[in-house]
Write a structure and sequence with these properties.
One of its GO terms (cellular component) is cytosol. By secondary structure, this protein is mostly helical. It contains 2 helices and no strands.
């Protein structure tokens, strides 16, 4: 075997090993980052916007219910005053 062919063979083997190591490192980093994000409970912007909209709707509903309760309490108070007369 000549030196050039030995060099090519070694180069191919090394390149393949480097690719494998790179893939392995990428997978490990992705796994670690994913676990850290999960641990920190970070959400995507899309999920945040959805939850924000849901919360906004709930706040509006609660506000409307509070208003209805106040109105009903006023009405009840007026009715009780009328009955006392």
């Amino acid at each position: 075997m000549e030196i050039k062919s030995i060099f090519r063979m070694i180069s191919r083997i090394l390149l393949e090993e480097i690719r494998n190591i790179r893939k392995e490192i990428e997978n490990k980093v992705k796994f670690i980052v994913s676990k850290q994000i999960e641990r920190l409970q970070i959400v995507s912007k899309e999920e945040y916007e959805i939850q924000s909209e849901i919360l906004s709707n709930i706040v509006k509903k609660v506000s409307n219910m509070e208003k209805r309760i106040r109105d009903l309490e006023r009405k009840d108070l007026k009715n009780s005053k009328i009955k006392k007369k």
